[in-house]
Amino acid sequence: QVHLVESGGGLVQPGGSLRLSCAASGVAFSVISMAWYRQAPGKQRELVAGIRIGGTRNYADSVKGRFTISRNSAENTMYLEMNSLKPEDTAVYYCNINLMYWGQGTQVTVSS
């Protein structure tokens, strides 16, 4: 059974940084893609950043230049380095594997 666990969320002031982690277990198949999504209150879940097998990365326009996604394939872990955080980045952040499996989410709150 696939199990994804996010960590690293919290409260940070505008302009601050956070590093999210996603640890995957029970993965007995090829991981084609891993991604971070987020969902703010009253809004739809949206793609933040993705990384595919081979290392291709893509980012939402709203986070380009501020967020960096990375992956440790050997350990099935994924990270999201978030810098220059803004209040509009406030959301629950979820990790995803192969567009099929989801974690429980970690709250990120950007506020002074």
Question: What fraction, in percent, of the residue positions are helical?
Answer: under 10%
Report the span from N to C terminus.
40 Å
How much of the sequence is in beta strands? over 45%
Radius of gyration: 13 Å
pLDDT averaged over residues: 94
Our count of helices gives: 0
Given helix and strand content, the structural type is mainly beta
Q: Number of DSSP strands? A: 11
Low-pLDDT stretches are none
Topology order in helix (H) and strand (E) letters: EEEEEEEEEEE
Shape: globular
What about the largest sheet? 7 strands, mixed
Give a verbal description of the structure.
Strands 2, 4, 5, 6, 9, 10 and 11 form a seven-stranded mixed β-sheet that branches. A four-stranded antiparallel β-sheet has the order 1-3-8-7, with no helix packed on it. The protein contains no helices and eleven strands. The model has no long low-confidence stretch (mean pLDDT 94). The radius of gyration is 13 Å and the shape is globular. The chain is mainly beta.
